[in-house]
Amino acid sequence: MSIQFLNRQGDFSLTAADETSYLYFPIGNEGGVMGSITPNLNGDSKIGQNAFLLEPVSIENLHSSNMGRNMWVKINGSIIWSIAGTSGEQQIHQFEKGREEVTVTGGKLWHLVQRRNERIGIQSDVLNYCPATKEKVEIMKVTFKNIGHQRMNLVPTVAVPIYGRSADNLRDHRHVTSLLHRIRVEEDGVVVTPTLSFNEHGHKKNEVSYGVYAREDNKHKPVGFYPILEDFIGEGGRLSWPRAVVCDDIPLCKTGTCIEGMEAMGGIRFEQIYLETEESKTYYIVLSYNGEGLKYLDEFEEGIAFQEMKDYWKKQSTIQCKTSDDTFDYFAGWVGIQPTLRRIYGCSFLPHHDYGRGGRGWRDLWQDSLALLLNDAKGVRNRLVSYYGGVRIDGSNATIIGLVPGEFIADRNSIVRVWMDHGLWPLITTNLYIHQTGDGDILFEENTYFKDSISNRGEGRDGLWDGQTSQLRTYSNEIYNGTILEHILVQHLTAFYDVGEHNHMKLKGGDWNDALDMAKENGESVAFTAAYAGNLATLSELLTWILEKKNIVEVEIAEELVTLLFQSESVYSSPLEKRKVLEHYCNLCTSYISGKKAKIKVVDLISKLNGKSEWIKKHIRSLEYIADEEGNHWFNGYYDNHKEQVEGVYKDKARVLLTSQVFTIMSKTATDEQVSKIVNTMDYYLYDISVGGYRLNTNFEEVKTDLGRMFGFAYGNKENGSVFSHMAVMYAYSLYSRRFVTEGYKVLKSLYLHAMDFKVSRMYPGIPEYFNKRGRGMYHYLTGSASWFMLTMLTQMYGVRGEYGDLVLDPKLVAEQFDEQGSTSIQTFFADKNITVLYVNKNLKEIGDYEIDEIYLDNKLYTTSEETAKISRKDIIELEEGREHTIRVILS
Ligand code: G1P
After folding, report:
1. Closest residue (by CA) to atom 6 of ligand 1?
2. HEC string of 150-184?
3. What are the GO BP annotations of this UniProt entry (predicted)?
4. Beta bridge partner(s), residue 780
5. 446 alpha carbon to ligand 1 midpoint, in Å?
6. Is there a contact between 289 and 138 (Cβ–Cβ < 8 Å)?
């Protein structure tokens, strides 16, 4: 039992797929259809929290519900057989030898299940996908084949229960909401249009209809319908043994029938057919929202849609590598489409989900944009600018982004929370954008600030806020605008002063680790204080470029900010003084802002930001670098609500968190010597190859209610000690960025090998949020680790990255990644040009032993005068449009 790759597109197959539980595959599109499907055709389909066509499923419903897609055939008048394997007979034989064979073949983004029953002599091939258009529709193509030795007759019935309402109504008014249903039988199917969208806070007239339609391949229409769930099941029947199919004694409804107030069923009966041996018959089914996509009931249109969908998804995985290991390349191809999936699905809409209500969180939005902009920087620019409108003037932000860019919601559960890491991510993404494009002007674009009643970084309330506006205004009631640079300064300068007793930034509602949420009053995150120090340095580097290359010597910022910028170093060392400065600033702009701008010299800005960055790094190095008796060294990353240092040795056991090391390394707070020691310590305490590599932490063996809910989770799961891909990949990134290449490679390789070890990981190709204590991949597809994986692979491992718009080539590849000819390549888009960088290392030299000898741009020798190998943007822009270009880099 393993995943077999079939071709260079990364299509794969899995035999006996129904013998693994919890497998699911995404079926969605840019039209906003968000579906999932399992080998048994379970899963759901929706276009939002309040519009599910198929009944919502969470992970445990995948094997307990029969409300998914299905089609039945009655064979030779007596055998009842389901393409989903749900008939009692099929279930009895499931674990037996000679049972039905179920093979899943998966491609981007289509899912094919073949179910073969030799005993009965029947096979079904079920293909599901959504077209690449914006139509809200899922296409399902079912082909029956007679694999027996005798002619057979089949009576086919499509059986897809239509839920047609909000996920909230699973329990809340489940029955009453069925009374809203208006069911209409049309020529090709059953459609439900509820009268209202039920919500006790205010019912709304419903606008969405949900339909299941089907046709036989030679365009035959159905002969009748079962539009009501309870009729289809029949008295005493079950969805896994429906009376309508088994006894055939339920009258069929005709086109034109209307029914009010019942649970609906996409029950569609076709005429009896005869299949000779080896003969087959196809049925086209569409799961449609608002009647969209009915043209796909036609064989020809379906064929076009399938090809276009494949082309579309190929374009989404534009970063493609070719190493010595084909399996790695295919795996990376699947990781490559995950950022797009998260853009479509958000964080909630697959069967594994934390919050189940949709929307995208602030930090996820920015980090997903990392990979998205590697593919299409231009397309992402406006979105980045609009996201800055979610920043509050106190440096905190709205946490949820609505469907349209620029639409923000303070918090999904209306809880006042500030995550202290949120200010960090926008600059990380913006910095990448500037380097990839050379577009420093983005810093001087303007946007508004988000306004609600929350003030003083979650610790105050604005009594004057009228609830009418969500944009900050000046005292003269004009909407206030500031540059993106100003927004970034607001985020970092406020954070700098928002410290706890040990002069590290307060943990507040949590940091990257959502589950460190119980130390709001006194907790501190040293890990993310280090990360902010890294960002302060990044910002001053960007400003140095702006000054030197763009000749901008002065910038304008909100007058109120000046106080945060120019404080003496003596203030830095006093948490009390710092908090006073912050309070003063927040009070100045709680309800309104003056609107006055101050002119600041860029040199002053650079020096002030650098000063702050250096001060933090020194402070952390001097206080938080800790050791145990065995000579292991690492950084403490947290203080708990009792103001105690979290990491170290406690009751003879080491308490170590990976996060604390990742951000001290990435921000260059840790010196090179310290990084070496930390690497050994992580290997010693956190490395566990049986679960995919580096765990998030050691076992504290204590439910630390003074730090966070994570300590309530069983060790080895989620944020408590699992191998959490996101942090592991960021660990790899930080190691590569510090030129600890073999160490970084080890992190990625461990994750990849484990993910592809199907017997343990039990997941389709790609990267999961984490591997649980049994090594199973969890929360597949929708994880920020995918974006970081692509970023690390392209810009660090292959070293193909922008530097203020130019293209740098700085390979950090280990010898085993080159094939027998000494080649390895990566394909990406840069300056809108399709570029493949091919590294040739004929003598298979190891990292450290090779350097760049020659560069050929489309076979012409390219000379660069700079110390780092660089191709100027100008030369890339001049390359011919619409074709692939190769940069061949000879290493010696
Ligand atoms: C998830 C969340 C992310 C959070 C992380 C740790 O990670 O989406 O915001 O920082 O858990 O709590 P992901 O699913 O992106 O891997």
Report:
1. 513
2. CCEEEEEEEEEEECCECHHHHCCCHHHHHCCCEEE
3. carbohydrate metabolic process
4. 768
5. 29
6. no
Residues 750, 717 share a domain: yes
How far, in Å, is the centroid of ligand 1 from the Cα of 52?
25
> For residue 163, how many other CB atoms are within 10 A of its CB?
28
**Domain check: are 81 and 123 in the same one?**
yes
Q: Which pLDDT band, with edges at 50, 70 and 90, does 275 fall under?
A: very high
The pair of three-digit structure tokens given for residue 410, joined into one six-digit string: 């303070």
DSSP lists the bridge partners of residue 724 as: 770
Residue 155 forms part of a structural domain: yes
**Alpha carbon of 400 to ligand 1 centroid (Å):** 14
409 pLDDT above the threshold of 90: no
DSSP class of residue 238? Answer: B
**Is residue 731 domain-shared with residue 803, that is, in the same domain?**
no
Q: What is the 3-state secondary structure (H, E, C) of 520-572?
A: CCCCEEHHHHHHHHHHHHHHHHHHHHHHHHHCCCEEEEEHHHHHHHCCCHHHH
Per-residue tokens: 577: 């003084």
Q: Domain end: 795, 816, 843, which one?
A: 795
The β-bridge partners of 102 are: 115
pLDDT digits (tens, 9 = 90+) for 124-170: 999 999 999 999 999 999 999 999 999 999 999 999 999 999 999 99
Query: Does 20 score more than 80 pLDDT?
Result: yes
Ligand 1 site, CB within 6 A: 347, 361, 363-364, 512-515, 719, 726, 769, 779, 783-785
Q: How many domains does the chain have?
A: 3
Instruction: Tell me, yes or no, whether 311 and 289 share the same domain.
Output: yes
> What is the C-alpha to C-alpha distance for residues 263 and 858, in angstroms, rounded to an integer?
63
CA of 783 to the centre of ligand 1 (A): 7
pLDDT at site 75: 97
Are residues 668 and 723 located together in one domain of the fold?
yes
Whether the Cβ atoms of residue 71 and residue 285 lie closer than 8 Å to each other = yes
Q: Could you tell me whether strands 833-840 and 884-891 are parallel, antiparallel, or unpaired per DSSP bridges?
A: parallel
**Ligand 1 atom at shortest distance from the alpha carbon of 782:** 14
Task: Residue 745: give its domain's CATH number.
Answer: 1.50.10.10
In this structure, the answer to whether residues 82 and 135 fall within a common structural domain is yes
The number of the ligand 1 atom at minimal distance from the alpha carbon of 512 is 10
Residue 82 forms part of a structural domain: yes
* Parent domain of 876: 798-891
Percent of residues in the chain assigned helix, strand, coil, to nearest 5: 35, 25, 40
Provide, rounded to the nearest whole percent, the portion of the chain with pLDDT above 70.
Answer: 99
The confidence score (pLDDT) of residue 412 equals 61
Range picked from 192-201, 347-356, 786-795 for highest mean pLDDT = 786-795
Ligand 1 atom closest to Cα of residue 364:
9
Question: What spacing in Å lies between the alpha carbon of 436 and ligand 1's midpoint?
Answer: 25
623 part of a folded domain: no
- What's the N-to-C CA distance of the chain in angstroms? 42
Kindly give the number of the ligand 1 atom that is closest to the alpha carbon of 785: 16
Whose CA is closest to atom 16 on ligand 1?
783
Please, which pLDDT band fits residue 869 given cuts at 50, 70 and 90? very high
Q: What is the pLDDT of residues 164-213, one digit of tens each?
A: 999 999 988 999 999 999 999 999 999 999 999 877 778 889 999 999 99
**Chain centre to alpha carbon of residue 166:** 23
> Is residue 360, in this structure, part of any structural domain at all?
no
Q: Which two tokens stand for residue 274?
A: 């005869």
Among 723, 726, 783, 791, the mutation site with the greatest number of ligand 1 atoms within 8 A of its Cβ is 726
Percent of the chain at pLDDT above 90? 90
**Do 803 and 790 share a structural domain?**
no
Question: Which CATH number belongs to the domain containing residue 816 in this structure?
Answer: 2.60.420.10
Say whether pLDDT at 809 is over 70.
Answer: yes
Which residue type is seen at 569?
E
Which of residues 760, 779, 795 is at a domain's end? Answer: 795
Distances from the Cα of 633 to the Cαs of 615, 621, 679, in angstroms?
Answer: 22, 12, 9
Q: Which atom of ligand 1 is nearest to the CA of 784?
A: 15
Against a cut of 0.70, is the pTM above it? Answer: yes
- Please determine, for residue 405, whether its predicted confidence score (pLDDT) is greater than 70: no
Name the token pair of 617: 């790094």
